Amino acid sequence: MSSVGAKSELLNVLGDVKVRVQDKLGIVDFPMPQFILLGRQSVGKSRLIEALAGECFNFISGTLGSRRPTILEFRHAPGYTISKWFVRDRKTNHWMEYPIDQVMKIVGDAHEECGASVSHEAIYVRIESSACVDMQIVDLPGFRDFAIDTGKQDLADKIETMVMTFMKDKRNVMLCVEQAGDAATMSTLAKCRSLDPEFKRTILIRNKLDKYYNDLTPDNVSKWVDGFGDLPDSLVRFALTLPWWHDGSPMPKPFNQIKDEMDANDKNQMASKGLSDMYMDTIGFKNFVKFMEKKIEQMFAEAIDPVLTNLKDLKSTASNQKKDLETEYNDTDPHRILSTTRDCGISFATALTHVMEGVLDLQPVMNLDEELRAFHHYHATLGSNHFSLLPSEDFCSLQDYIDYLRNEIQIGAFDVEVNGGAQFRRLMMEVEIFLRFSEIAVEIKKRDVIQARGVSMSSLTWRDVVVKLLSHEAHLPLQRRVAYVGERIKWFFEIQKDAVLEFMEKLEGSPTANLFSPLYPKHAKLIKQNAMIKHAVWQTYDQTCGRQLRQFVELFENMLTSTFSNPWVFLKGATTIPAISGDLEDAMLPSFDDTKNRIPREIESRSGNEVAISHWLTKIPAEPHEIDQAVDKVQILVLHTYSFIRSQVCDQVELFSESFFKLPMMRRLEEDMAKIELTPEDKANYQARRERLEPEIKLAEESLVEIDWCIDRLQGFKLKCDARG
């Protein structure tokens, strides 16, 4: 790429690619290097641009000055006798040639459009001339140190914010223009240092060197060029004098002749002052241009491979997007949409089983603290009052309950962020603790005991009195806490939707993809992209959760009703399992005699609670004059019986939750998804979605064409350069 033509072609190729990628495809973050011109007003930025263009001109920016970026593309054209000026149309992105006066007007009008504000939308200007250099820079509005009123100060602040946005982009090389002088007073360079402390992408241009000639001596000239120690060695810097003449007088000589004379004068003056040879390459405009041409060639040549890599990645992404859009378009066909929606729902239902079995690296996850707070916030928003949100009145707030679970009970995995089956297991531990706080809410009074005994055709025993009191006083507290258990399980399943969808989506291209249905990724994309399919699946899922909650509460209430109507049958204890020794060396299967001996012991142990309660019942006096003593014993017996029932229910809450909620739901969810029906409104929405997909598919196809053009252009240029050697 050492020839002038190859260098110009390189800039043209990358410039065209940049236009198509950033403007037509709307992709801003792309590895395309560029030079940005920075400086305060009146430091000579405009004259530097004229020197690079090789002719004198003046962009008319109105009374408020420059208010938007101007991207200038200089192209060296040796055969041209006059320069050609082009402006890129902001609507069509095509380059249009104009006379220089018309270009100045177009640029001025673009700045005036901004009014008293700024715009990040750039103006593109290209100059082709035998006198200009091969370069591309972004001319930014100058920093303004002084404002006459608040309106001007507001504009100055907006300009600084916009310029700093360009400076923060690490792909941009900053051309910092300052007046020749003390390095400590260079305010623009200080801004560059704040964003680029090591000056890896900063180039300092000290203008108006001729005004400093008389202050330089053989003793200080080298130190001045070196910044008297204020400029680090890593900072590339140049000192030069740009063409100038007295205000109000015509240009005394051709512009390029003045430029060459100023360059020669800078070099002669600095040499006469005894400047070291190691610094002479940093003096004068021509040395600056020589450095910039090499720097541009190096940067843009190095950018080809990263740009190609990004374009290929972009092509892969665009191809997948086009494929997904076409899949959705085909699947939303009116004749197939119902089947597609049901298939997506069935895949979602089966994927829930895998998530409940435990899948790593799924989001979202929660620890128990976050889970309880989210649950309480959800029901506080709904205004739920049909169940107790706290297990006991002894807890003043949710924070007290959380502290109790974390510090006193020390629930396993309390602070671990989990979802799926692991979260359900932790949930079971929490609701069991919640249930165990159930107490008979009111005091059983003497009148209640006497009233419950009454009279009957047959004799009423104290056993019957206990049953009446339990049914009346103890049923409701336990029932409200059972409702809490059901609501917690329902809410748990409802928040698993995103985790299940992520599981389905992440399978694509993963090593475990072959272990699951190949339809999962496809259906996950459909659910995410198609709001109507997602709504239908989510609605059916939530309805299933709601139905299972109602069935859970109903079955549990039926169980409680039967329990309190005849607690003595329920209180037959489960088989007691003997402790297992840690030493398994002598472990063996039980013999037939061992089994025969074990069965009577188990049958006997099952009636342990009932025997104890029957023993207490016999101690309650039946004589009228001993009613006070009888009331006390009945109250104690009711509390003991309730504690036995509560313990049995809490011991089996996980079994009830599995049997009454989780298993029925997971078994019937797939069936419910297969019964999804679409309303006429849904069908109309699907048709509207298909109509919107058509232009999206066309846009994706056009994007692929643009990307292919960019790749072909870059690869063709690279092959041409390789052929040139």
Give a brief description:
The chain has 24 helices and nine strands. It has helices at residues 4-24, 45-53, 100-112, 150-168, 187-195, 221-225, 255-272, 277-280, 285-331, 337-357, 368-382, 398-409, 420-436, 446-453, 462-494, 497-506, 519-529, 531-565, 567-570, 592-605, 608-618, 627-651, 653-673, 680-724, and strands at residues 34-38, 70-76, 84-88, 95-98, 123-129, 135-139, 172-179, 202-207, 236-239.
Secondary-structure blueprint of this entry?
Elements: H1 4-24, E1 34-38, H2 45-53, E2 70-76, E3 84-88, E4 95-98, H3 100-112, E5 123-129, E6 135-139, H4 150-168, E7 172-179, H5 187-195, E8 202-207, H6 221-225, E9 236-239, H7 255-272, H8 277-280, H9 285-331, H10 337-357, H11 368-382, H12 398-409, H13 420-436, H14 446-453, H15 462-494, H16 497-506, H17 519-529, H18 531-565, H19 567-570, H20 592-605, H21 608-618, H22 627-651, H23 653-673, H24 680-724
Fraction of residues in helix: 55-70%
Q: Strand-residue fraction? A: 5-15%
Silhouette:
elongated
Give a count of the beta strands, DSSP E runs of length 2 or more: 9
**Major sheet characteristics:** 9 strands, mixed
Rg result: 42 Å
Strand order within the widest beta sheet = 4-3-5-2-6-1-7-8-9
- Which stretches are poorly predicted, pLDDT < 50 over at least 5 residues? 1-5, 574-585
Mean pLDDT: 82
Gap between N and C termini: 9 Å
Helix/strand-derived category reads alpha/beta
Number of helices: 24
